[in-house]
Design brief:
Belongs to the calycin superfamily. Lipocalin family. The protein is built from 3 helices and 9 strands, in the order H-H-E-E-E-E-E-E-E-E-H-E. With 175 residues, the chain is of the alpha+beta class. It has one domain (2-166): Lipocalin, CATH 2.40.128.20. An 8-stranded antiparallel β-barrel has the order 1-2-3-4-5-6-7-8.
């Protein structure tokens, strides 16, 4: 019975951990983070596999959380795919550590561990372990110097940046 209780607790709390050595940014201003972000690069995972022109849009929810809309284009299926989720701060609202859910009661970590604090033009985000990594930008293009610095930071923290997928944003973005 003890094992079942532990398993159920893990199932319903989700995976909102932080990889060793990764620290969420402080002085996070959610109002500045709202809006559209373009995916510049990511580590591969099943829910975005094969997608190009990927973006994420964040807005406030009435319950104090965030609404998350992830969108990407599947050339193989010749259609846009969209997932709508919700996110909540794990601790303080000025720390870049949220839990996000696209599937009911199941939450995963969303950790902003590098951020352009001045203009909110780029961010480096990971999940609960080093198999999840995203480089995000406010525009579909990112200066090589900024991108290389973000990749170097992720590599120094143990992410396998040799496996990054660089997302193309060719074609109409608004379809």
């Amino acid at each position: 019975m003890k094992k079942l209780s532990l398993w159920l607790a893990m199932l319903f709390t989700g995976c909102a951990g932080i990889p060793d050595g990764v620290k969420p940014v402080d002085n996070f201003k959610v109002q500045n983070y709202l809006g559209k972000w373009y995916e510049i690069a990511r580590l591969d995972h099943s829910f975005e596999r094969g997608l190009t022109r990927v973006s994420a849009e964040y807005s406030l929810r009435e319950d104090g959380g965030l609404r998350v809309v992830n969108r990407g284009y599947s050339a193989q299926e010749n259609r846009w795919k969209e997932a709508v989720g919700k996110a909540y701060f794990v601790s303080e609202s000025d720390q870049g550590f949220l839990k996000v859910s696209f599937f009911g009661p199941f939450y995963g970590s969303y950790i902003v561990f590098e951020l352009d604090h001045e203009n909110y033009q780029y961010s480096l985000v990971c999940g609960p372990d080093r198999s999840y990594l995203w480089i995000l930008s406010r525009s579909p293009e990112m200066k090589a110097e900024v991108k290389n610095n973000l990749i170097a930071k992720a590599a120094a923290l143990g992410f396998d940046t040799s496996k990054l997928i660089y997302v193309t944003h060719d074609g109409p973005l608004g379809e």
